[in-house]
Amino acid sequence: MSKSIFVSRINQIDAVQLDQEIYKVLRTQVNEITKYFAPGKIVKWRPEIDVLVKYFIWNFSLKTNSSTFGQRLLNLSYRNLDRRKAIVLFALMAVPEYLRDRLINENFILSKFARLSSYKRSKYRSYIEHIDNFCHLLNFIWTFFFLHLGNQPLFIEKLLNIHNQSSTMNKPRSIGYSYMTRELLWHGLIELFTISLPMIDLRLFQKFWNRLWIPKKNEKKIVISYRLNKTSLCGYCNESPILPKWAGCSHVFCYYCLEALFIMVDPYHCPVCNEELFSSNMKS
Question: Is 11 left (phi over 0), alpha (psi -120 to 50) or beta?
Fold first, then answer.
């Protein structure tokens, strides 16, 4: 393939995906319109409705232009596409799927082939399913040829000898990275908060707030000892103290809680009574 008509593979694949998504959007709108009809009235006509939706898409795209809606969004178009090939392209993309949906339908088989035995009807159904599976296998194999050749992502395009070309003289595809940048920034902030927040001692802010608003005592009551009982709780973790320690106020602490607090800051203010505690006064 010459460089003048080179089209990136990702653009061609995206164009096919966009065409499929546009069809699904229109098909969903049709379902919303027909959901208020009597049950069973629309279901038996679904294959015909699907063909009609595909016809409207083809009528406003390939019939009047050489590109589908998905190709127009990516500045692509078909080369060597005339009116006859456009009609054949629509027929090959819509009619086989219609026949598959209509012929595999159990009610259709019973009405058209009522005289046949159940064995022959099941055999008839299996033939149709085998043909459908063969078509899917053919498209799957052709995908590897497309990845190698770089053009004609659909096997139907190969049969009609039509190629994708850029309508903007190989203008490079512009990709916006604003969304990616925003997501990376947001995940970076989350990771920063996850690491830094556990390292912040909120008790220090609580002590600072208490020192600002709790009035200072005129006389400091000196506590010489404290009697430990079954209802005593740690002044920091508010649980039953493990290896209880006392450091000068009327409250006891777990050894690990008080030792960790003194490692962090010395002197330390009791979070309950705001008394100033020193590590040198820590006793059992």
Answer: alpha
* 161-188 b/e (C-beta count within 10 Å ≥ 16 → b): ebbbbbeeeeeeeeeeeeeeeeeeeeee
Distance separating alpha carbons of residues 2 and 20, to the nearest angstrom: 29
Alpha helices in the chain (DSSP H): 9-34, 46-59, 69-73, 83-103, 106-112, 118-149, 155-160, 178-196, 202-213, 255-264
Contact criterion met (CB below 8 Å) for 254 and 234? yes
pTM metric for this prediction: 0.54
Measured from the Cβ of residue 270, the count of other Cβ atoms closer than 10 Å reads 21
Taking only the tens place, the pLDDT of each residue in 190-211 is 888 888 877 777 766 776 776 6
Quick check: helix, strand or coil at residue 89? helix
Contacts of 168 (CB under 8 A, 6+ apart): 75
